[in-house]
Specification:
Layout lengths: L1 H14 L16 E4 L2 E5 L12 H14 L7 H5 L2 H14 L3 E5 L2 H12 L5 E5 L4 H10 L2 E5 L4 H10 L5 E6 L11 H10 L2 E6 L14 H4 L7 E6 L9 E5 L1 H10 L1 H4 L6 H15 L2 H17 L6 E2 L6 E7 L1 H13 L2 E2 L2 E2 L9 E6 L6 H16 L2
Helix pairs in contact: 2-12, 4-12, 5-6, 5-10, 13-15
């Protein structure tokens, strides 16, 4: 029976140490959260600038609801597109230095739209092997030929591009890889795109707000600009709210408006959210002090943990993965921290490759030096334990 088969499959997931459990928070996002009746020091969220509970954003979203109501009521192409969406999209395009932008309800939907709409049968997609699952799913939905190259391996990517018979070529990559924290070699990727007449789709979910002058993202960090680039940004991480966008050449964006299924066939995000995101962009632009503090916290963590039993991945971003290895050991380490009131999630396959289970330490500008020192103290003690 189908249900019995599911039970057996769930038991096997549990046997392998891969069962996932939701934890319900009883407080706003921040360095300290309420969970299960206890307070925890949290290193879990992607709230890199500490804006998720910022008073200015709380006021902005309340003001947006008063002005625009609670919901959009329909899809963008029916009656769910508001003046607030127009203003936000113009502001996002200007912020990223692009001709035009289109907004989405989630980053997952934006990634599906970009990849599945801009490539199709007869085309080839060249994707970094560690790309986010939503980029992989978009490639599968496109029906294009999917060619995955080893992580950040430009030489192998060049060989694939040189030998493809595809009529159109699309290179797809995260900018900051969500489970490793490292940066894609964007100048090299753009150079290959130029040499092989390819489109370059970049998911800047974890770079926007953190990298580049005024937090303008990974392209600004590398001082890159090209009409070949299709840039995807997420607004639920450093921006502190929710939603996403795609920015690029005006013709690319118009094609997405006309053909992107995850845009056309879903209710628009509330205009109140679009209204509040304008405040978020202003806060990001003025957050140089927070970004400097974030860099100091990253340096403090990396300088204070010279682990021999585990290994910090090579990351200069707020994502600091501590590679543990086995699933059970990663879960045990996370549980020991949890017992001490510090919440750091264990990340296991299939999110990461087999044998690389890890703690994903996420830093925020809202953390204090004492918060980082507390985590370091606990990790040193656990490493020394038999």
């Amino acid at each position: 029976m189908f249900i019995d088969d599911l039970r057996a499959d769930l038991d096997e997931i549990d046997r392998l140490g891969l069962t996932r459990r939701r934890r319900a928070l009883g407080s706003p996002c921040g360095p300290r959260v309420q969970r299960d009746g206890r307070e925890y020091l949290s290193f879990c969220s992607n709230d890199y600038l500490g804006l998720a509970a910022d008073p200015a954003l709380r006021a902005a979203i309340a003001d947006g609801a008063q002005q625009w109501g609670a919901g959009a009521g329909a899809s963008h192409l029916v009656s769910g597109h508001y003046a607030a969406h127009d203003v936000l999209e113009s502001a996002l395009a200007a912020f990223c230095g692009c001709e035009r932008a289109i907004s989405f309800s989630t980053g997952y939907m934006a990634n599906l739209a970009a990849v599945a709409t801009l490539a199709g049968r007869g085309d080839a997609i060249f994707a970094d092997r560690l790309n986010h699952a939503s980029l992989v799913d978009g490639a599968l939905l496109s029906r294009a030929r999917l060619c995955r190259y080893p992580h950040t391996d430009l030489s192998q990517l060049a060989r694939l591009l040189e030998t493809t018979p595809a009529r159109r070529r699309v290179i797809v990559s995260d900018t900051v890889f969500s489970m490793d924290g490292d940066l894609a070699p964007l100048p090299g990727l753009l150079d290959l795109a130029e040499r092989h007449d390819a489109l370059l789709i970049l998911d800047d979910a974890h770079g926007l707000g953190v990298l580049g002058p005024e937090g303008r993202g990974s392209l600004a960090h590398f001082d890159l600009c090209s009409p070949r680039v299709v840039l995807i940004g997420t607004l639920g991480k450093a921006a502190g709210l929710a939603g996403a966008f795609i920015a690029g050449d005006g013709r690319v964006i118009e094609w997405l408006v006309q053909r992107a299924r995850s845009y056309i066939f879903t209710t628009a995000a509330p205009p109140a959210l679009a209204h509040a995101l304008l405040t978020s962009l202003l806060l990001i632009r003025g957050a140089d002090e927070a970004r400097a503090r974030l860099r100091q916290l990253i340096d403090r963590l990396r300088g204070g943990l010279s682990a021999r039993r585990w290994r910090l991945a090579d990351s200069a971003t707020p994502i600091q993965p501590l590679i543990v290895g086995g699933n059970r050991e990663a879960l045990a380490l996370s549980a020991a921290l949890d017992e001490a009131g510090v919440w750091v999630p264990a990340i296991r396959p299939p999110t990461v490759p087999e044998g690389t289970a890890r703690l994903r330490i996420s830093l925020s500008a809202a953390h204090s030096y004492a918060d980082v020192d507390r985590l370091l103290e606990l990790l040193r003690g656990l490493e020394a334990a038999p």
